[in-house]
Every structure is written in C-alpha cells, then in structure tokens.
Known about the structure:
Elements: E1 5-7, E2 13-14, E3 26-27, E4 30-36, H1 43-48, E5 53-59
Antiparallel strand pairs: 1-2, 1-3, 4-5
Bound molecules: zinc ion.
Amino acid sequence: MSELRACKVCRRITTELTCPYCGGETSTEWHGYVYILNSEMSQIAKEMGAENGEYALRVR
Ligand SMILES: [Zn+2]
C-alpha cells in the first residue's frame, strides 16, 4: 500500500515524493483531507486558491 503524501507548496494529495503538479517537496505529515469537486462553487477552494482535486488542509 502506498502512503498518501501532500505537497508542501500547493497542498495537493499525491503518492509521489515530488509533487506532479508544481514540482514541490511532499510530506507524509499532513492533516485534513479535502476533495474539491467544483472549485467555483466551493468557499474552501476560493480561500485556498485551489483547482478541482484532492488537497490537504495543513501540511508540515
Ligand atoms: Zn505541489
């Protein structure tokens, strides 16, 4: 089983050591899974400046 990681830069959820979206470093130390389905309708997405996808609320 591969461990889920989160990007320290853009907070995308990934299993890669390097973020496939922005190339940033990823970490297993993250909390708060968020799945953004419709970024234009989501207040959380607006606050995060996020596009549709899987995100962590907090990454260490
Ligand atoms: Zn990233």
